[in-house]
Queue: 2 jobs
Job 1
Amino acid sequence: LKATEHEAEERRLIEAARTDPARFAEIYEANFARVYAFVARRVPGREEAEDITAEVFHQALAGLAGFEWRGTPFIAWLLGIASNLVARRWKGAVAAQTEVPVDEMELATNSEEAERQALFAQLLRRLPEDQCHVLERRFFEQRSIREIAQEMGRSEGAVKQLQFRALETLRSQIRDRHE
Amino acid sequence: MNDFMIEKLDQQIDRLLRADQPGRQSDPELRELMQIAGEIALVPSPAFQTRLREELHSSAGPGQAQRETVIPPIFASSSLTFPMNGSRLALSFGLHVIALALIATSGWWVVENRQVVRMKVAELVPGNDDYLLPVAPGKIGGGGGGGDRDKMDASHGTAPRFTAQQLTPPLAVVRNQNPALPAEPSLVGPPDLVLPQSDRLGDPMASVLNPPSNGPGNGGGIGSGEGGGIGSGKGPGMGEGYGGGIGGGIYRVGGGVSAPRPIYDPDPEYSEEARKAKFQGTVMLSAIIGPDGRPRDLRVLRSVGMGLDQKALDAVWKWRFAPAMKNSQPVSVQVSIEVAFRLY
């Protein structure tokens, strides 16, 4: 019943976005985490993952009028586009232009990956402010320890300590959730 | 964990962020922390999520069409780029270089060969056709003239019909509106000679249309001659001669008649069809150059086709000449004009 409701909701969103492209924002919010999770685990760098994720949504927005329901959820179509772009990234520009199908197992794995990322994003926000700040600068903005130290007005050693403590806190929170 | 381990952890994170594969850790605590770091590395940046949301919002709005027409940068890597095909890029680059080289060298060639290019200008040659009968060596027979001593030249119009006997001379300006015995104006000549008729009588060879004038001649009629005819001759006929009928006409170059000299002769254009076919040829035209230096009665004597005939006619139609002279007077002459089309 839940799956049927979810599909009906998806259909409603897509129809709305077809008539009014500004409504695509709702589709984006509903699917961003899963598309990013799919891409981020298949390309080596954050910058590349962001580029491909952006391209997936731009292509989806441009091709929404041509989307047809084929008995699979909408996310499968998005991941098909992502899979194609990732394949092109690895095989070069002459890779096949056809949509790469994504099977049910991949969809399930992707769902778990997205949930795991959402969990870590949530735990990250609960860290003490200085620890959270260091990890965000280090991982999201890819700053060096020296740059972060200069920005925070602390020594490099102190920033490394904060980084270590932040990861340790996250580890203990994960352990707590498993126990 | 001691300082050494903290330093080692940071080095491993460095490698992870540079997309290098971190080395396998023997220390279980360090390994666990690196697994956590690996998960954090996969968490999307909230700033990116917001930026992409805004980007899509603007793409979905009125700017969408504009984005689709943006030419993607060739070397930049961004969401706006498309896959670059190296061989096609190289081919395109090569073709552009060749095109630029051709443009540059063609400009140089034209400058260096200016005289050769000018050689395709048409050439005026003496007529060698039988378009007209030769001019009589003596005085031209036939013709007439008239006028009523008006200060202005005779005005343009058509001649009345020809009759064996003239009752009333033609007039462009009728002075006596109520004649005692009205009669149809006519010229003396063969009655079966039919010329274009209209309500406006005048000298068919005159270039002035208005105001209506009978001309500076005398003896009635229209023109600068004498008698009741039309033109510069004498008598009731039309033209330069005398005694009725039609006289005067067109001369040919030679025998005291000088050739007209082109004073404005723009080059003809090449037709697109002939240029594509790399076709060359010479069009022979026949023309009458009037006393006013303008060409008229242009005809194609020898056609080459490919649209070049019309191009030759278009060009020669614009030409202007210093008229042919006979006895220090400008006269009409029949000439042939060769228009040579050459590709260099």
Job 2
Amino acid sequence: MGARDIRVANEISSVRRAATDSLTPVRLSAVLLALLLSGCDRFNEAIRAVTSAASPVPDISNQELLTAQQDVGQWIHYSGNYRGTRYSPDTQINRENVGGLKLVWKYGAKWHQAGFETTAIAYDDRIYITVGGNELIRLDPAKGTPVWSFTAGPARSANRGAAVLGHRLYMGTADARLVCVDADSGLLLWDRIVDDARLGYRVTGAPMIVKDKVLVGVSANGARGFIDAYDASTGKRAWRFWVVPGPGEPGSETWEGNSMLTGGGSAWLTGTYDPELDLVYWGTGNPLPFFDGDARKGDNLYTNSIVALDPDTGNLAWHFQTTPHDLFDWDGVAEPILVDETINGRSVKAIVQANRNGYVFVLDRTNGELIYATPYTRVNWANAGPGGKPIIKPEIAGAKVRQVYPGVTGGSNWPPKAYSPRTHMLYIPSMVRGATYVSVPSLRVRDNVRTGGIIYWNKEPAEGSIEALDVRTGGIKWSFDTQGPNWGGLLATAGGLLFGGAFDGYLRAFNDETGEVLWEFQTGTGVYAPPTTFRIGGKQYIGLASGYGLMGNGSSGRDQQRHQAIYYLFSLEEH
Amino acid sequence: MGGSMGPSLLSTQAVALTDADLADMIRDGRPDKGMPALDYQPGQIVALVNFIRRLQRDQGTTDAGLPQEGTAVAPSAIDRGQALFTGAARCAECHSVNEEGGLTAPDLTHIADRMTPEQLLDAIQKPSQSIADGYAASEIVMRDGTTIRGWSRYETAATLQLYDPQEQLWTTYFQKDLVQRRRLSESLMPNGLLDSLTDVERNNLLAFLASLKAEAN
């Protein structure tokens, strides 16, 4: 998009329709007057009402963010909590009653080709969803109608959700901005350029709050990737961690010549945080050119790594590279989930990550040492190296034509995994389709992005499943066939349940120990987002965005899924 | 200075020649125009080119004036002007052309459709004379005494957004939190941007800006 488009990108929020009976008079006046009475004294009053200390809006405190994993009421992190588990302690919906789960309402949003990928933020009487990389919508849980919608500009892309702190919401945009809006009114509070969208940058992942900062990673699309931290109240940049080091910096020795300068290294998902160790963990993306390793000889740090950063400074504490010198676009951005388990008789503060390269990695999160790695899907590319770390087979690394499992979308892509401390299981949305990679060094996506090769998918269509892996042993306890590649994320609950939508359009509730299906609902198209749970008025709800994206369709080898972007809400009683 | 038989070495056309073109011309001459080939050693030619360049820089120009509307300008002058735009003249730190450059000042991709070379020169020399819509600067004083300056946009009776170009950050301020607000008559574009340029460089920069027309893109 052009610079002019960026400038004219209007941030003024608009009210599509106010659900009047669910709003207090203060909120109603704020919302309507902001639009209708701009320039009048009453508009001033409305703005004062929504921004004054006497505002009825509940603030989300840092303490609430820290204890979210024990909280049944709210969903205030992208991953439900800082540990990234997507596990809710709520038992109101459980194995006994889940069969009575009913649709409360559905809300139709504007479909985008990337798919409808949002994780809703929900607390008090409000649900916030993000749509298409430029829209943040506050929904009325009673009606399923928007209270307001904020549009950040014309550029659109994937978007996976917002973050909340105090009375402020934060959203990344398709044109690489980070916006902060008032959670009650949708009024813009600040709006900053993260980096130049014309170089390929986007912010598609949900931001993460750590203390007084907002952390975002970027989708770099050929540019050099980074993770940024901004002051949550002012929007000023606190630090930047470059995923790929500059010439002469530590890690640059793993790149031949100056190849690091065009080396990629996105960080397009959301990290996790251990407040005791005071470390942030983030998964990083693939090096460039994608398929031509000769152009960037070496391990290519810190691409395809889990990095541990000091949240105050952005300094690197340790790193672990899951795919050194990647040749297959296996960006290792999946969330590093924090678990405390006894493994091999030793109690460990661990990280578990289901990586796109087909392996689950379990690390000691205090120092990044590998505890074990084990495949969760079909893999053929690696031998066991030191400590069991998968190392690419020399005959594959040395070939110009490489037949590999998993293919370019990986054994599991971005859709979030879930971990249940109840069952000690990691639940992985998985897919199986091999591909042949042919190295063609000259191939480009555009001027500054070289693919360096061509991929041919295997003839067989993609299969998919949910894999339930016991983190203590690495063993698969059960799996469920999703009748196509699984791009649906997962949710585990203390009610003995696992929820997940899938390629076949069904949202299902499973017995978390056996994989038995206890309930299902047909959403109308493939599911491309994780379900979440929260309480409103003391009642537990399940929310889900449904809408398939082109990436899943293009890689499936199956009939195309319908285009829709619908947010569904379920509860135990019919409305 | 010099004879009247050959064209001026300080003309726009001469300034626009690349060093290599100039060197070729000295070596090969322009037999069609009556200039003989000169039998200099390569080192001497380089020295001559450097000398001519120094003349062009030091003397300024009397006849290499602003590009005139409708008059062709040598492509190399435009190229040099572009190099100045993105380099020494520092324009691209704030302005963009064809999606390259800064995001904080007006996009200049088709600026020549809207402004003549004279107007462009005037706007650079007197940034505050005319300020583009949306780039007017404001200064506000907050209740705690903090003073903030920036570009303002989307002003309402209740709110005002100011842009901080260093942070690339727009912030919303509420009128109720302000004790003072004034629209600055001066632009946030610095004065004296042309001071470090020679007249020839200035003309090359103007030649580049004057080339930024929709049909040329």
